[in-house]
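One chain given next:
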Amino acid sequence: MNRILLVEDDEVMPKIIARILPEPEYQVDVAVNGKEAMQKLEDNNYQYDLVITDIMMPYANGFEILSKVKTHDQEHPIPVIIVSNAGNEDMIMEGFKLGVDDFLKKPIIPAELIIRVKRLLMKK
């Protein structure tokens, strides 16, 4: 089973992701804001196979979560996908500078998400 942390403040998105990435192959933990995401990462000792995060959220944005994940264990980094409505070039470039592994624009295309998730999990 692959453990995924989904950080998303839109209440519909976790339901969509749960259908795209079903159990038992994927266990998706959901955090509804950046603060909750940071807590889940710490409570679970960063034992996630992948983090999928939105950029614009309350308390801590996706870039802060990305930075925290990437600086935690540089020898065994957790892959991170940023998913956002905000698709401007500056945000995408900032994400890649901070070490994001992939970037998806909303609305998510299910087949594209599955391919990208599987690719990153195979690398890990």
Notes: The first strand starts at residue 2 and ends at 7. The mean pLDDT is 92. The chain has five helices and five strands.
